Amino acid sequence: MDNNRKQSLLAGGLISSAGLLISKFLSLFYTIPFDTILQTKANRSIYSQGYNVYSYILMIASAGLPFAVATLVARYVARGDYKSALLVKKISFYTMTALGFICMCFMVVFSAPIAQQIIEGSNNIRIMRITLIILSLAVFIIPILSSFRGFYQGLKEMEIYSASQIIEQIVRIVFLLGASCIAIYIFQADRVWAVYFGVIATSVSGFLTILYIKSYDKKKIAPIKQLANQQDGSGIEASVIFRELVYLAIPFLITAAFGYCDTLVNQWDFIPGLTANGVTDKATITLFQDGVYFKAMKLIAIPMILAPGFSSAIYPYITEAREKKQPSLVKKYISNCVESVVYIALPICFALFVFARPIIYTLYGPTGNDLEVYTEILQIFALEGLAATVCPIFTSLVMSLGQRKKIIITTMIFAIIKIATNRWFISMFGVPGMVFSSFLAYVIFAGLNVLIIQKSYNVNWKYTLRKVFFMFLGLVGFYLIAQVFGLFGMIDYTGNRILSLLYLGVMGIISCLAYFGITAVCNVPQSIFNFNLSSIKKRIKK
């Protein structure tokens, strides 16, 4: 494969992942002051569970159209049909606006029964219902934002895609913390207003990010319009493009509905499963909910952004290679994407496991039994973080290869396994049962998708498996370095949180360098990301 093409794909994946990663890190660290503002576990539970419902409905509201838009734009640009590419942008905007409006109305109408299903206590149900109604506005705005992102993704303008993620998160955090502090500390409002302003911030940031992306239209769209004016013919009809969008989006919609059902299934099964396990104390259940939804799930979301990040880059490149009938290039793209995600995901998820205790203490400051419970929850959820990071990349690959019907089947199998085993596993193992259920479903799901890929392109995984072996060897070095820090008490430190953050940074950097050093000796990152250490050393010396 041409090195420039390989670097372009990896650069696109890394750039889009970097934007998502930075936004996730920002959302992670704002929780430190926001946790103090929310104050109670009940408020934190309402805030986090409300977002879980919003995220699931948002996936349905988006209906997979952003990826469908990216695929069509990449296809028409590769063909030189710029008029059709511009028409895709227009049609997708109106379609996403209509879908967002419908889902917003649905969320408002069904806010009461949803709230009753996921939370207990009449006052908490009322607050949750208001929270869901406020979030419904974001369900209308964010799909419109996604349509713009999908267009630029199809143009391979990953810098704009990535920057918009960061800007959206910065605006959200500034508004969230600013409005909450003014309401709570200046106007002495009830702490529940922090929940309300927290969810309002999503709509505000989404609207301002749309304006940011629109500011690029004149600069980026003008050359395409010029090429469209020079193009012979009238392009594809609007009705045909709309049918193509629907045809591409329906599999995305179905896979989103079934593939991310684990979030809602976990919420529905959480209390009944724990009750069957013998956990009936409300304080203990609330502690577990706080540990799972407001801490562990937020932290494992950091590596999980690699899948959508690289997915954003996959579609235009593989679509272009398939349009130009370059099967060998498609095979290389597939192996490169998998290797890149696994190489980055492994040390991040392993760090969440090894440094779970200092991470929880540094970010949230619990002590005693709460710290121990949160640490154990994060350690077990690190396993789900790895599975939920690596396995979804196969969804993107199968989709981009045009095997949409097959991905629907494998995703439904994933959902069936999760639904069938989740409550049963929770009743047997407690909170870890949620992870065991998801991990089992993910492994079977990934295995089925690999078989589909093999039937289509017969990818040679021999060298990929060899690299993965060396990656695990690098994790051994990571673990040994971490144990040395443990001997000096740095992992178990629970004093000043600023000093704890310093310790955590030192431990994380040195341990990751050990992972990188061992894998670099085995030539793993050089072969994946296409760089030469010797040339880099020479440049540094110069």
TrEMBL record:
Subcellular location: Cell membrane
Superkingdom of this protein's organism: Bacteria
Annotated signal peptide: none
Coiled-coil annotated residue ranges, if any: none
UniProt xrefs under Pfam families: Polysacc_synt
Protein name, as recorded: O-antigen/teichoic acid export membrane protein
Bilayer topology term: Multi-pass membrane protein
Residues that span the membrane, as ranges: 9-33, 53-73, 93-115, 127-148, 169-187, 193-213, 245-265, 299-319, 340-360, 380-402, 423-448, 468-491, 498-518
Keyword Transmembrane appears in the UniProt entry: yes
Keywords, sorted A to Z: Cell membrane, Membrane, Transmembrane, Transmembrane helix
